[in-house]
Amino acid sequence: MPCDALRTPADPRMDRMTTPLLERSWRRAWQDLGARRSGEELRLALLARYGEPHRHYHGRQHLAECLAAFETVAHLAHFAAEVEMALWFHDAIHAVRRADNEAQSAEWASEALREAGVAPEVRARVHALIMATRHAAVPVAADEQLLADIDLGILAADRARFADYEQQIRREYAFVPGWLFKRKRRAVLAAFLERPRIYGTDHFHAALETRARRNLAHALARPAG
Hints:
mainly alpha
C-alpha cells in the first residue's frame, strides 16, 4: 500500500477531497453485493457516525484512508465487495467506553444488508470480516487478513502521520488519566511489536512491516513518565 494513502489531511477540506472516493467505493461495493436500491440513506448514516465529534482518529479520515488503501489491493481479495463493505462498517459504532464496538458494528451491517436483500452467506462474510478488526490475533482467513492489514496500515504511516495518529488516539481517550493512558497505550503498542508478524498478508508484510516496527519501537522508546 502506498504510504500516500496514509497522508489524508485532517482538516475541513478532507470531505471535499474524499467525496469522489467515498461515493465510488460505496456504489461499487453496494452493487457488487447485489443490494437493492442505492443504499444512499445508509451511506449518509454511516458518514454521520464517522463524523461524530468524539472521533478524533476513528472518523472519516480513517475511513477514507482505509478505502483508498483498499483500492490499491482489491485484486488480492477473494470477495472484494465484502471486504470493501466491511471497511465501511468496521468502525460504524465507536463508543470509547465500550468493548463491543466491533460486534455492534457487525450486527448493524448484517441487519442493514438483510433489509437490502443481500444473500445470507454474503452477510455472514461481512460480519466475520468486521469482527476481525478486533485485532485480538492475526486472522487466519485470507480476506480477514487483508482487511485487518488495511486497518493497521496506520502503524506504518510516515513519521508525521503516525505522530498525528497518536495524538488523535489520546484525544479520543481524553477522559483517561495521563499515567493510566500511557500504561495502557504502551501495552497495546508493545503487543503489536511482539507479534511474529504484524501484517498477515505477504503483500502488506513486505510493504509495511519494517516501517511499522520502526514506528512502534520509536513510540515505545519515549519516556513512560
